Amino acid sequence: MNDNNEQKKPTVFYTKKSETKKYSRSTKEKKINWNKKFKDDSFQSNTQLERNDRIETFRPRAGKSGFVRQNIVVEINRTQSRSLIDNNSPWQKKVRDNEQTPTFGYDGYRQRKEETLVYSENSCKAVFKHRRSAIVKLFIMQEMTYQFKDLINWLVKQRLGYDIVSNEQISKITQTQHHGGVCLIVKKRASLTLVDYLESNSDKDDDCVLAIDDINNPHNLGGLIRSAAFYNVNGVILRQTNLLESGAAMRVAEGGIEAIKSIKSDDFVASLDMLKRHGYQIVALLPCQLKSIASSELHQITFNKKIAIVIFQQINMKLINNADVVIHLKGNENMPALNISVATGILLSTLPK
After folding, report:
1. CA-CA distance, 103 to 86, in Å (whole number)?
2. Strand ranges (DSSP E) for 265-353?
3. What is the bridge-based pairing of β-strands 281-285 and 261-264?
4. CB-based contacts of 244: which residues, under 8 Å, 6+ apart?
């Protein structure tokens, strides 16, 4: 019985004490040795800082092609960073034109469906005067802030944003150099139908509207609107009323767009017939005198109190046949025709006040 129990006991091997001391160390010894080594080999030692003038470097390593990589500076002492960084280094801090970083946030400065850009001094002031509730944000140069202090104070009270930007930044936003140092993000205006316009003006004895056909140039359109606002035109009929939301058109109009109602019409012939039934005199203005079309000079016409002036770049015979009066401005051999916006201004100047 005892013999069987002794056979089941595990065999135990013992090592010599000299061998144990040779290959093992106590935890205390490991800690002491590690601290000593860390102190001697530390990359934060003063001697290494003085020698390399940096905190950490990597040794050059030869590649397969024999090219030796240069030493890479991983971290530089803050006190010596300005002297160590080269002027062409991508890590160098770039100097901005203004301390306040602009927060554009305008979808890459492109127009949204509900918003548009208005720039130039008079256009922005007109928006603030007529429909300040449509203003979303202001971008302005430092030298223009005094002229728009009322607008800035109103924006602060309404908790709306504004950014002080440089000339380059505002040029990038507006995509033009003719921004005047100020730009507004505003909500687009809602256009009217001709029925709604006539109902709102049913109690008026005198009225003047422009029916603009096939004039898509924003500068010509802006010039037309500026002349129309100067001579108290109340409405403008367009097939595409979004043309009035062009930043270039609003800049040339110098704020005149804010004083005129935009009327959308898909069928000009039907719109002119409706205006006739409401007592409007339809006057078509030719861009120049044509032998094939019977027309009268400006001084030969007597105008009514209610008038609708049809303006076009390309002759539209359907609209001419629907007009009560066709007018041309007589030129000469040197210059037979005027710019359409200039000709419209001359015609508007002869209307009864």
Report:
1. 30
2. 281-285, 296-297, 306-312, 325-328
3. unpaired
4. 189, 221, 225, 236, 238, 250, 257, 262
pTM above 0.85, yes or no: no
**CATH architecture of the domain with range 115-187:** 2-Layer Sandwich (3.30)
Q: Which amino acid does the sequence have at 118?
A: V
CATH (residue range 192-349): 3.40.1280.10
User: Residue 287 contacts by C-beta under 8 Å, 6 or more apart in sequence?
Assistant: 312, 313, 315, 337, 338, 340, 343
Among 304, 308, 283, 349, which Cα is nearest to 198's?
Answer: 308
Distance (Å, rounded) from C-alpha 40 to C-alpha 31?
A: 14
Task: For the chain, 353 residues long, give each residue's pLDDT as a single digit of tens.
Answer: 555 555 555 555 555 555 444 445 555 555 555 555 555 554 444 444 444 444 444 444 554 444 434 443 334 344 444 444 444 444 344 434 444 455 554 554 445 678 889 999 999 999 999 999 999 999 999 999 999 999 999 999 999 889 999 999 999 988 889 899 999 999 988 899 999 999 988 888 899 999 999 888 889 999 999 999 999 999 999 998 988 888 889 999 999 999 999 999 999 999 999 999 999 999 999 888 888 888 888 888 889 999 999 998 888 899 999 999 999 888 888 888 888 899 999 999 988 77
> Which are the contacts of 178, defined by CB distance < 8 A and separation ≥ 6?
119, 120, 251
Q: Where are the domains of the chain?
A: 15-95, 115-187, 192-349
Contact present, 226 and 252 (Cβ < 8 Å) = yes
Instruction: Give the pairing type, strands 207-213 and 235-238.
Output: parallel
Measured in Å, how far apart are the chain's first and last C-alpha atoms?
Answer: 137
How many residues appear in the chain?
A: 353
Distance of alpha carbon 209 from alpha carbon 272, whole angstroms: 11
